[in-house]
Amino acid sequence: MKELTIHTEAARQVVDITDQVSQQLETEDGVVHIFAKHTTVAISVADLDPGTDQDYLNALFDMVPDIDFNHPHDPAHTPSHILSAMIKPELTVPVVAGRLQLGTWQRIVLLEFDGPRERHVVLSFL
Fold first, then answer.
1. How far apart are CA 95 and CA 92, in angstroms?
2. pTM for this structure?
């Protein structure tokens, strides 16, 4: 198991972590499980053509209703918790011959919903 530290720079941001994950691969064949240790981020696969990062964030936050949330700590970041739960803070990717088996346009991304912050992502290898 290994852990990455990701420093986000904005309140809402899509961070490409593909290269950091690739550099940590331990197995020739198997899977890598990527897990963020936070409740206001998600891990996913995305196409990162210019501008699509902002398109993802705009579309995702538009899906969360504008209601009075009951979160006792800080109701303003309840949408961040909801999006993290919906998208999930984890992803599993096959590895063959020591390489991630991603499609041509696929990148592994951390979706920051409540930054900027230091984020911790755990990699497990099977």
1. 10
2. 0.94
Pairwise CA distance, residues 122 & 21, whole Å: 10
DSSP designation for 67:
-
What would the two tokens of residue 66 be?
Answer: 């504008």
Domains annotated on the chain, with CATH: 2-125 (2.60.120.460)
N-terminal to C-terminal alpha carbon distance within the chain: 10
Its sign, for the CA torsion 117, 44, 42, 76, is positive
- Cα 34 to Cα 93: distance, rounded to the nearest angstrom: 8
What letter would DSSP give residue 26?
Answer: -
Which residue(s) pair with 66 in the sheet? Answer: none
Q: Please report, in tens digits, the pLDDT of each residue of the chain (126 residues total).
A: 999 999 999 999 999 999 999 999 988 899 999 999 999 999 999 999 999 999 999 999 999 888 777 777 776 778 889 999 999 999 999 999 999 999 999 999 999 999 999 999 999 999
